[in-house]
Amino acid sequence: MRSSRDGRRRGRPVLRRQAAPAGAASRRAGPVRGLAIDLGSSGARAWVPGQGLVTDGPADREDGARRPVRRGRIVDADSCAGLLDRLADTALGPHRQDSVIVLSHPVLAGPEHRTLAGELLAALGASDAVVLNSASAVAACAGPPGGGPVLVVDMGAELTEVALLVDGSVVDARQADVGLSDLGPQAPPTELVGNVLDMITSMWREDRHGAMRGALRRGPVLTGGGALRRDVTDRIEGCLGVPVRVTPDPSTAVVRGAALILDSLR
Predict the structure, then answer these.
(1) For residue 26, how many C-alpha atoms fall within 13 Å in the half-sphere facing its CB?
(2) Strand-pair category, 128-133 with 99-105
(3) C-alpha torsion 172→177→181→184, nearest 10
(4) Is 182 left (phi over 0), alpha (psi -120 to 50) or beta?
């Protein structure tokens, strides 16, 4: 999506108050084995409790038409099913009846994407499958000091999202279809940073209860590949005038946070 500065719509409002992912389900006695998956535009990552990170390589294929994920959305269900099956085989083996699998999706993924993700996950044969939004996973991984509202800025390869969480639930979010892969090798991150600032400003203007003020005071949580670039994080911090918090190993923050939620389910 283009920046709002050129007059075109680029932010998608989220449906208010998404439920926290580890609600009533977390109180069940879950299976012993588990697998957390982050299916991103730049590649698929999985986390196995007790073992750590498992990767399937880049999601990009030589044939661009066969890329399973673009701009955070599943565009090739068959390729995506094969990718998920390979990850499950690597982590859990062919028998998955005693396992639970968690799959993250972008905050503003539409109902069609979420339904398809759920169907692909269910087809893996685990005894339980959970689809959750990536912002909740990042917030779990970041562990914000003192609790309170959390502002998550996720700058991925092809998608940038800003989400505000209160008490573990997403109450507002924006999304821009632009990411690191849209920047030239030597290009400054002007558009990427501009999109982030535009989205934060839009959410600030619509904030009626002071949650954005509290989240900014605690410091926005930056994650994704963009958070690995000092020229990006320094510009955001300088323009906002508040300290930012970069998650440890930003490129794996989503899958590690999903793994923490998985542990609560197990």
Answers:
(1) 10
(2) parallel
(3) -110
(4) alpha
